[in-house]
Structures are given as C-alpha cells and as structure tokens.
Amino acid sequence: MNLELNPRTGRRQALKIGGLSVSLAALVAACGENRGGDDAPGRVGNAPVVTTPPDYEVDDAVLLRTASSLEYTAIAVYDLVRDFDVLDSGLLDRLIADHQDTADIMVGLTEDVGGVGWTETNPWFMDRLVGPLVESITSGARSDEDISADLFSTVTALENLAAASHQELASVIGETDARVAHLEAALLEARHASVLAIANSGDSKNYISPALVGDDVARDERGGIPYFAISSTFGETAQIDLIAGPADENGVRTTFALQTPSLNSFVYNELEPDT
Amino acid sequence: MTRKDPSPVDLEPAERELDTPVSRRSLVTLSGAAGLGGLAAALLLDRTTLALPADDEVERPNVPTDADVALLAQVIGLELAGSELYRLKLDSTDGDLAVAVRVMAENHQAFAQAVAGSTGLSAETANASLVAASRSGFEGSDDEFFAAAHAFEQTAAATHTALMGQYESDDAIALTASIALTEVRHATVLADLLGVTDLDVLFGNDESALSLGDDA
Questions:
Q1: What is the DSSP letter of A234?
Q2: CA-closest candidate to residue A164, choices A108, A113, A111, A240
Q3: Among the partner residues B161, B170, B202, nearest to A180 by beta-carbon distance
Q4: Tens-digit pLDDT profile for residues A69-124
Q5: Which of A29, B52, B54, B136 is the most buried (most CB within 10 A)?
C-alpha cells in the first residue's frame, strides 16, 4: 500500500474545496433572510441615534418655491438695510420692487405647475446665513460706518448670489416658461449686483476684476473682499465669500460662504410656512 | 516559520502541461466567481431600481440637438461680431478704458469659442451685417462708443433670452445663461461710463432680440 502523499493532488483538492465553498457561501448569502445583526456602522460611546432625513421629491414646483423664497429673503435684508444709511432711498425702493416683481412671477409659475406658491423667506438661508450675518455685523461696539460698509457688501454679495441661483435654476428646471423667467431674473439681479459693485467702490469704479487680466485681487481698505461689475468671463455659480463683522482678538474677521440653493435649502412641497 | 511569498513549487512548468486537472481547477474557480457575481448582482438590484428615472420624467439631451446647433451657429456669428467691434475701438484708446475694451472683446470671443466647442462648429465668421450696422458707433468718440456698445450688449442679451425658450439641450441652455449674464454686466459698465443714472436704463432692456438666420 502506497501511503506517500501527492503534493499536486493536495493543491488541486484545496482549489476545489475553496471554489465550492465560495459558491455555497454566495448561494446562502443570496437566499438567506433575517440574517440578524446591526447593519449600521459601529459606534463608540453614547452618541445620539442618527435620524434619517426624509427623501422628498424635487420637482419644478420645489425649484420655483425656492426661487420665490430667495426673493423674499432679499426683500427682508433690504428692509433691514433701510434702518441704516447704506443705500439711496430711490435705489433701495427700486431694488425691493424688482425683487417683489420677481417673487410674484415665481409664485405664479409655481401655481402654474400645480404647486403652492411660497411667499415667505427661505428658512434655511435665514437661519444659517442671514441671521448669523446680521448678528455679526451689528454686534459689539462698531461704528455706523463699519456697519454700513458691511451691509453694502452684504447686499452686493446677495445680489450676486441671487443672479447665480437663477442662472443655475434656469439650467435645471423643466418648464420652458419657468426657464425663461429664471434667466430674466438672473439678468436683472446681475444688473443689480453690477450697479451695487460700482457704487460701493467709490472713485475706484470696480468695473472689471483684476483677475480677468491676470492680476491679483487685493482686499479693500477695510480688509473685505471687493466685488466687481464684471468678475469673470462667464456667469459663475460658485461659492461667494463675504467678510463681515468685527475682528476677533487676532484681528481676523469672519468669512461667510454664500452658496446657491441645493438639497438642504430647497423649499420642498412638504414644507409649510413657519415650520 | 510560515513563508508569505508564493511557494516555489507553484512555478513548476510541468504542472501546466497537465491538461485535465488544470481545466477542472479553472471550472471550480469560475463557478466560485460566478457565485460571487450572482451575489453582487442580487445585492445591487435594489440600487439599480432606485437610479431609474420616474415614468413621467422626460430626459433632456445633454449635447446640442440639430435644432440647437442651427441656432447656436448664428450665436457664434453674433459673438464674433461683438469681439470684432470692440477691437475696432482698441486702436483709438488707451489706459483703463483700453483694458476694459480688451476684456469685453476677449469675452465675446470666448463666448463664440465656447459655443463652437459645444457644437463642433468652428468660430470663424462674424455676422457681417451686425458689424456693419454698429461700426460707426464703435469707431466714434468715447460717448458714441459707450452708447453703441451698450446697445449691442442689450441686443445680445435680449437675443439670448429669446433663444432660451427654444433650446432643447442642457448644454445650450446652461451656456446661454452664463453668456447672457456677463453681457448684461458689460451693459451696466458701459451705461455707467456713459453717465447713465436712470434706473430704468440700468436695470431694464428696451432693445429687441435679433432675428437670427439671415446673415451669419
């Protein structure tokens, strides 16, 4: 009797068993139910239970409600600005009237596509941007001049944001009438932003960003970010930075990031006013 | 001590010559891989279903359709006309104004090139009738230039707005929006240089859209 082990047969056997084991494991995994155990990632400590956000549909009505909410947010900021000596009253009234007209158009289009028009500010923008921004600008012992300068920069940045938001919405919305309305709103608010950028820069007339001719963009005399009537070759939808508020003990002022609406700031059809 | 490198035995060439055992081994390995593939497919099935568009969604083409290309070909002529007109002014100006004029000329050229890149057309020929219609204003005094250039930018913006409702593709829509936004900013600067303070002029647009298609 030959008891000598054959090493080749051993490897072959091992491959056979390995292949069959993987096949059986795959079969069992595919057919199995109630495998038990927690599928969530491992957690350490007493962290609160993660709440799964609702998955709401984003349709044309949501985009139009978001657009009108931005217009009402702009009006709310201009109403605040009226209490400070920032803008000529004729210009301020015109800016508010233009935003109200655009809001009315967006509300009408929302109803045309079967949605409920939104006639209030955007909750997310008010809570996360406008509220902290205004609090920062008006906090501490700041001069009226500093507050006015910050508010001027704020409304200029907001007009740039509004133009970028409508530009983006024009690109994604389905209804043709709404697409054209978004472009018209974007053009109007780009004009607002340009006029404010020129007016805010005094004699220096910030017509064209130095970046367009290959130069660095220096901060303004108060350390803020200057805005230009023409800041890029194509209309941009990128984040807009705004420096506002008092400096901390290190001389650093807060930078606020303004971003076009997205999933976190859409006014969904399920959202009710004051909720 | 356990070796972690492959055993030298596996490198024996003689083993590859054994046809039948190797085939069986491949068969077993393939069956294992097939099993794993089936498992992966089963696990991915739900996600694939979620990624499908809803029944009532209409897909918009990404790239310009034939109808879009026909319109955008005219837009190239419009934008190149703008670039050519601004370059006429460059010969008679200098300083900060020359910088602004050069930027606007280059912007219009960039618009034409972007449209050409999107459509596969070449950006070569300016709309001759547009150049002829505005040439005297662009070659005139500074104020005549500001007025003519302002009218051109307003006309271009009105034209893009009119075309916006006709485009069928994502690229045509997104590109048009980004071009028109800069053109109204040009118009605002030119109005300020002209000394305009009327808010109806600064924020409005009385110019009509061009009826493109006759002369490109």
A1: S
A2: A240
A3: B161
A4: 999 999 999 999 998 989 999 999 999 999 999 999 999 999 999 999 999 999 99
A5: A29
